[in-house]
Structure formats: structure tokens, C-alpha cells
Amino acid sequence: MNQFVENKTENTYKFWHALSHPNEWRTQEPLRIVKGDGLYVWDDKGHKMLDGFAGLWCVNVGHNRTEVKDAIKKQMDEISYYQLFAGVSHPLAEQLSNKLIEMTAEEDMAKVIYGSGGSDAVETAIKIARQYWVLKDQPKRTRIMSLKNAYHGVNLGGTSLNGMPVFKMNYGPLLEQCNQIESPWLYRNPWNCEDPDELARLVVDQFEREILYYGADTVAAFIAEPVQGAGGIIVPPEKFWPSLRKLCDKYEILLIADEVITGFGRSGHMFGSRGWGVKPDIMVLAKGLTSGYVPLSATLLNTRIEQAFHDNNDHKGLFMHGYTYGGHPLGCAAALAVLDIVEKENLPENAAKMGQYLLTELKKLEAQYPLIGEVRGKGLMIALDLVKDKNSREPIDAEGDIAARLTEACRSAGAVIRPIGTKLCLAPPLTIDQAGCDVLINALKSAFDQVQA
Question: E strands of 116-174, at which residues?
Fold first, then answer.
């Protein structure tokens, strides 16, 4: 019998859950979320839980914000949809693009390309990076490099750049000339290096060796998350991103910051790359852009790339890319309202402050419970790394049920968290206060007490 199928009544609903085996959920009742308000969500049984994962890293301003709902309704009363192909526009797409360029003036961003979600935005970045080098008469520059443990979405290009084999194993052949180097992960790395500066040097040196091996004239871009999210909330050493930028400049390689999770405050800075003092050439934005109220993404490119297109007057500059729902009017309306809240309430600062509080308090759990090997994070991105043994750092069995049991116990204690492999991950709304943090902390304590018993 299949390991996921038990002798129970099969569910009647007809969709598959993402990132899991369909049989896993055939006979299990889902967590049905029916209501949200502020920091909290309710299931169909009336159970109230703090949303410790902000939906899916994205509901940064909290649920049920009147300002966002009113903006969407106002736009619906005018026109709910129109497209942005071939010289067609609508006012909110223009307003939002201007707003995004204003917000990223520090990064020298110049143009916006809209999509529907983060995977779309990564795909756009890949194509722009390759086309840029066609425009610069260096068409051999097609290779795009990334990090192990990276997550860049589920479209073919992003899947090819992902640094976790589970995302790739059933979908080959993938996009050619996509290579991964080691992740700058202090807790687990092949050098067993625990010195942050030395680890940054080791990873960047490996990148340079790869550049020289393949030839700098074949490398188009390097893409990375400022803080790796789905890979386990891996916070790189302080010197990693500045060293990465310096090496990309040395070989004229484009640097792409995948800010799908870190954009708009989650890392404790308005943008994750800004927190490392680095200016990317391309920025990939989604989740926090609309706080999940309406699907929307944006790929931003800097003046260096913009100029290459403006300097061209033949077919090489044709931008043969776009999405039906890119720049959707309702998404733009939601985004403008969300970004107003982000700035007025200074949510990046709150994320830094509350993230530090959570990290400090959860470190106490690390000392208390043998299952917790490390608590790490930046801003309101925090992971609890689950281990069999603290000294060896051997992770728990990924096929076991410990993470699932802890997750279920947390829900029962009043908080939704997300298990990712052998980690428990927290990413609550950026509006969270200390009382909300305490709900999360107490739910985790209750869960560990129950499961370890």
C-alpha cells in the first residue's frame, strides 16, 4: 500500500496541494482557513490562530485591511481588468511603476516589468539578463549561476536555478547552463567553517573558480535571495553580498536579487539587498508587493540594462515577453495601498525590532529543547533547525513526522507555522507586536513540550 494512503474515506475536493505528494492528502482533512483579521486567521471549526507565516511569507500588512480592500473596490468600480501589451496602459500601472522606481532610486532602478507572481518575475529576470548580453554583442553569455539551497520559483527557469534537488528530480531536462555553488550557511557547510568572514570568502572564491572554469564570457548573471527562504532561512555572513557584488563587477556579470520574500520590509530593511549595502542590476519583487491581496509581481531593471535597450534599433531589442495578468489593475490598486501602509507604519523597522525580540526569546528554547539545533533569522524570517543530536548537527529524519507533529501542536496552541523539510519557519505579518510574538513563542513552547514528551 502507498505510504500516504490509509483505509479512510477519500476527500471530495478536486484540487492538488502544492509541493506535496497528491496521495499524502487524499484521506486527510485540510486546514480550512475561512477568515482573517489583523494577525489572526480562523479555521472552519472556529479555531483562532495567529498567522505565524503571513499566508505564505506575503501578508505583510496583516489580514482584512480596510485601506487595501477599499482601494481594490474603487478600482473594480472603474474597470477590473485591462492589459499592458503593445502601447496599452492604465493609470494605476503607471502610478505603481513610478512608485517602485521612486522606492528603489537608491538601487538605480529604471524600469518595471509586471507579472502575476514570483515565479513569473524570476523568469522575466532570466530572459532580460540573457537579452542584455545579446544587445551588448556578447551572445555567448547565457550561463546563470545560483546557490545551493536556493529557491527561485517553479517555472522552468526558476526550477533550473533552484538549489534543492527535490524541485528538479522529476522535471528534466531543465534549462541548460544553470549552475549552483555552495550556500553561505554557517550552520551547515562542506568546509565546517564557523567563521563568517572566512565562509563568505570561501563561497565567493568558489564562484570565481566557476567563472574561470566556464569562461567569464559565458556567464550572464548570478541570482540569489538576500536571505534564503525556502532553503531554511539561511542568513549569509555580512561580507557575502558585498563580496559577491565586487566579483560580479570584476567580470561584468549581472547581479539579480530575488526579493520575492525579502522585498518591502521582511528582513528588517525595505529591501533585503539594501540591508547588505548592495545595489543589484535586477530586482525580483512579489509577495509583499500586494501583501497577497491580489496576485502581482514586478521585475525591476537598472539604468545599465535600460540603456542597452535604448541604444538598440533592430530586432535584438524586441521585448518578446509579457503576461496576460501582468500589471492587473486590481493588483496595482492593492499594491499602492499596501506600499502606503508599509511606509506610513514603518514596517521594515517594526520587522527588525520584533524579529530581534522573537530571535532572543526563541534562542532560550534552543537551549531548553534537545530537538532544536539552531534558531536563526533576520527581521521577521526565523527558522528553528530540528536535529537528532545538537553536537553532530545531524538533522531529524525528513521523512519522519516530527515536524508535522510540532506544526499540528502549534496550531492547537493557537499559531500557524510552516514546516520546511527539517525546519520550522516563522514569518508573521510585519505588523506584529510583542503580544503577538508572545503568542507564537508560547505556542512553540507548548508544541515542543507535547512532542518531546
Answer: 143-147
